[in-house]
Amino acid sequence: MGSTVTIILELLKQRPEIHNQLRSNRMLLSTVERYARELKANHEIWKGRLSQARPGSDESQIASEALEFALKELEDCFPSSTTVNQDD
After folding, report:
1. Element (H, E) at 50
2. Are 57 and 50 in contact (CB under 8 A)?
3. In the prediction, which pLDDT does 1 show?
4. Contact status, residue 74 vs residue 35, Cβ threshold 8 Å
5. How far apart are CA 45 and CA 80, in angstroms?
6. Which of 25, 36, 38, 50 could form a disulfide with 4 if both were Cys (CB 3.0 to 4.6 A apart)?
7. Which residue stretches of the chain have pLDDT < 50?
């Protein structure tokens, strides 16, 4: 899961307001781990879908495409900066 954690952390760093809010609320690690588990699960689902749709295709190509789809889905679910800190 190490690589998925790194991917999620980098995605959050691209959103400094969200990253900083999570860090200041001491929620960064738990949030990164949750999204990493979600990314891994979605990646596996997409690999299965693409393998069924394209039997005989190169596994590394399918894995790469599956990761792209899983990342896109996850990014679409990221909270906006205004919804991260709901205690205000």
Report:
1. helix 28-53
2. yes
3. 62
4. yes
5. 26
6. 36
7. 82, 85-88
